[in-house]
Protein 1
Amino acid sequence: MPPIPAGEIEHVFRAEYGRAVAVLVRTFGDIDTAEEAVQDAFTIAVERWPSSGIPPSPAGWIITTARNRAIDRLRRESSRRDRHAQADFLQANSNLETDEESDVPDERLRLIFTCCHPALATSVQVALTLRLLGGLTTAEIARAFLTPDATMAQRLVRAKAKIRDAGIPYRVPDAAELPERLRAVLAVIYLIFNEGYVASSGDRLVRDDLSAEAIRLARVLSDLMSGEPEVLGLLALMLLIESRRAARVGPDGHLVLLADQDRTRWSHTLIAEGQAIVRHCLRRNRPGPYQIQAAINAVHSDAPTAAATDWRQVLHLYDQLLIFAPSPIVALNRAVAVAELDGPAAALELVDALEVDRYHLDRYHLFHAIRADFLRRLGRREDAATEYAQAIECSANTAERDFLRSKAEALGHGGGV
């Protein structure tokens, strides 16, 4: 038998981990039991599959093996009669749970909504989603968010304990609850993507493993909830942004803005998929914030050069986005489109009208960076240099700070920080 490629078992792990954990959470009613059993099953797979080969149904093999390991552990770790009775019951009814035609997709959906329950803090929702649906180790999650391993481990333990002790239901929300709960799920996936696309801190500008995981989770969710256009909108948005990754960092590792990117390096495969989803959403005519953001990015991806961008269409879409999701960040991005159509003076007036103190925009590096660019274009070099210095101070990402410092140096200033 030819050797199994090194990454093939890892690929199965990434693809099937969340599915297996979801099934076992339902079966045993306990997240820790499910996780440990699935990890045991993959450990066995790593030992056996190189010689026996990957089975025809890897997911079924993992789920069956994990269930048997969990049942063995229940019998071994407790002498209480009810534990044995539970294990015997599960063993007797195991055929009901291994059928691959069962509602496995629904189980993953339940697990996603459990991870993103509003009783949990957003940071915990992100970590738990990456852990249970993505199969990332505690160390990987901690490293991605620059958190000590021990801190992340405690965070995950407390989250799982809260789910258990508070009786957080393992289910898909009712129709009345779904819109609000789905927003939380989509927000968590987008947070994961953004952390991968623009790391909030550290030396690396991007963490492509996190972005890839977010896109994978969005694909899972779109398969499970194809009737929800905002799910498709989020997937399209991430695909279109991701299409620009190769052009976003120059050969020297420095950030390259959208207007300066080599568009021949964009992934036209991802663009085509993202644009097809946007067109599908438009035909359904149930617009929402993620669909509109995807449409904005589709306009950018249509332009062969920055100068050819249809900024009037971009502005129109931002006007719509302000209706669906009014926020100072949307207003700030809209001002960029205004600057392209009506000039930097009109755009600066809009930015200066934002409620800086109320929304803490003074702590947001892009607020200062955008304002600095408008001031630079108006010839107000000293004021622009001050804004660049503020932007540098507010950014925790080394690559972004280096880029902002280069813009300040171009004005004859060192950026201050």
Note: Residues 88 and 360 are 58 Å apart (CA to CA).
Protein 2
Amino acid sequence: MKELFIKGCHSLTNIIDTDDEYGKKNSVSLQHLTTLEIMGCGKLEVIFPKSLLRCLPELNVLKIRECKELRQIIEEDVEDKTLSDLSPQPCFPKLEALCIEGCHKLKTLFSGSASNDLPNLHLLIINGASELEELVGCGQGKGEDIGKTKAELPRLKLLIFMHLSNFRQETELPNLKNCIVFKCPKLSLTSTTTLEYLCENFPHKGKYCTESLNINCYWKVVKLLK
């Protein structure tokens, strides 16, 4: 399987359940998955269980929209140290496009152990995540400590941050070409372009839909910027 699209599964709580009915671990592999899109799954709280992290070597596009109970992209367990003992290889070595929209209970995209797991990310869109505080969290706690760890995205070309009222983490973006920041009051990063400019200069199958942030449209921008 190379592409997986999940839409409107309102009772879905797990995408992959690694435990069988007897509590034993099931072996799950998605070695060839390149695209995962999830939309309108109101009860989904976690996308990836820990056991699956090193089993997504080809994942290229990840899009998550309107998952209102989503709290973690990667399942975290502070008492379980096995994640850091796994392979030093990135969890998502080929992920190039990541879009998060309408996931207001998400506070952190990745834990500190996953901070170097996006070496090839070119496109990042986050729109409507009112509780998001940082891209990478290292369990520093609350208050002034939040956001002190800088997120490093060495190959990012296009960044769009919109409606992130609590986001405060600074990022190192040495190859950023275009940046759009809108209603992110705690972030010092400022826009270098506009949605209108992207619409006019990078048309893709008609007009851009700026409200829904069509990832396919912006993906073409990234490809042209390479």
Note: Residues 80-87, 204-212 have pLDDT under 50 and may be disordered.
Protein 3
Amino acid sequence: MPEKKDEQASGAWAEDGIVQRATRAIKREIPELIVLSDVCLCEYMSHGHCGVVKKSTSIATGHSDSGGATAVRSRVQQYEIENDVTLEILARTAVSQAKAGVDVIAPSDMMDGRVAAIRAALDRAGFENTPILSYAAKFASGFYGPFREAADSAPQFGDRRSYQMDGANLLEAMREIQSDIEEGADMVMVKPAMPYLDVIAAARERFDVPVAAYQVSGEYAMIQAAAQNGWLDRERVMMESLLSIRRAGAGTILTYFAKDAAKLIS
């Protein structure tokens, strides 16, 4: 967790930020280990959104139904994510992480144009060979709950549906993935994994880049809770869930089961 949060996500690109410090520590101890970093701002924003928020207030006026002169006024607070301003912070964060030793930059914010902005910033800073793993199809999902609670990153108002994807729209997912590849993404991610196996399969069939999938905290928590209640065999269902993601076409799986699965596989 960052030591403080603000409305500019300053902890995301700080030289002594949590990701930067962790990366340098890892590289000192195990220099050959490949480090991938999640580039997003929600964990660093005081309001919990993935971008800079512009606030505005509108005033609605009217008259009483009885025809009298009494005016009825109400103030409505409105919020808008400033996409292009956010791109500048994301690009600065990506460069900061690359300077700390990150090997693969993985933006997960879902702002429009962020892959192109990050690619350009990395190239200008001398990191032309640092690849980008784009969370290209990140859906507005209820499966992120346990992580948001742990990271204290749930939005303080509204939700993320204006920039994360509609779970009913497969065609939009394909357009998002194609756009990110055209902007310079070397790999793409689908998140969550199990509720979107068809998206993983469609991406694998259509695009000639590595496809990854993220088995998120809610997917993990469901299996853990059911196993703790004795409703299913934890190891068997864990491996079955991972197999389904692999069968759908994911060449890489991010999962909280990584250590336990690796022990069984080895």
Note: Strands lie at 36-39, 53-63, 71-81, 104-107, 133-138, 187-191, 211-215, 252-255.
